[in-house]
Amino acid sequence: MGRVVIFIWLSIAAIVVVLGFIRLAPSDPLDWNTQPEFSEDKTFRGGVFRVVRSGEDGLARFHIVASNAARTRVLAGSVEDEMVTYVTRTRLLGFPDYTTARQDGELLKVYARLRFGRSDLGANNDRINSWIAQMEPAPQ
Fold first, then answer.
1. How many other β-carbons are positioned within 10 Å of the β-carbon of residue 64?
2. SS (H, E, C) the chain
3. Residue among 65, 56, 40 nearest 131 (CA)
4. pLDDT tens-digit map of 30-57
5. d(Cα 100, Cα 103) in Å, to the nearest integer?
6. How does the average pLDDT of the chain come out, rounded?
7. pTM of the predicted model, to two decimals?
8. Cα separations (Å) of 132 from 4, 60, 67, 113?
9. How far apart, in whole angstroms, are the C-alpha atoms of residue 50 and residue 40?
10. How far, in Å, CA of 29 to CA of 63, rounded?
11. Which residue windows are transmembrane per the record (predicted)?
């Protein structure tokens, strides 16, 4: 009986340590404020690429939506730099997802990905599609 209790307490301690690491792990802007070259939409297990013909102010309009989203903060960059990286954390466990948006002429290129694990269960796809849908239309 004593071994079972010790095993349970050690298991709980291990879970607390792992969840603490996930919640408190530092996010280095040099690692995350980057974006690979891509020219078309793509969905993969850990995130998405989205290319939107947004006009030259697309990043500014995207920034308004993203910076007002729940549990989301700017990690690095700015609209003036033409690239911004956001961190969005899950509600319960605080898993971080990173979204980098970059203005490329008339195109807005958005790269969203997870940090921990192999699959985001479509969370990045759903979030980015929602943010793009909420953007104000480009002025005519």
1. 14
2. CHHHHHHHHHHHHHHHHHHHHHHHCCCCHHHHCCCCCCCCCEEECCEEEEEEECCCCHHHHHHHHHHCCCCEEEEEEECCCCEEEEEEECCCCCCEEEEEEEEECCEEEEEEEECCCCCCCCHHHHHHHHHHHHCCCCCC
3. 65
4. 889 999 999 999 999 999 999 999 999 9
5. 10
6. 91
7. 0.86
8. 51, 12, 13, 16
9. 7
10. 17
11. 6-25
Please give the structure tokens belonging to residue 131.
């943010």
Q: Kindly report the CATH number that applies to the domain delimited by 28-134.
A: 3.30.310
Domain assignments of the chain as residue spans, ordered by start: 28-134
Token code pair at residue 75 = 């990690």
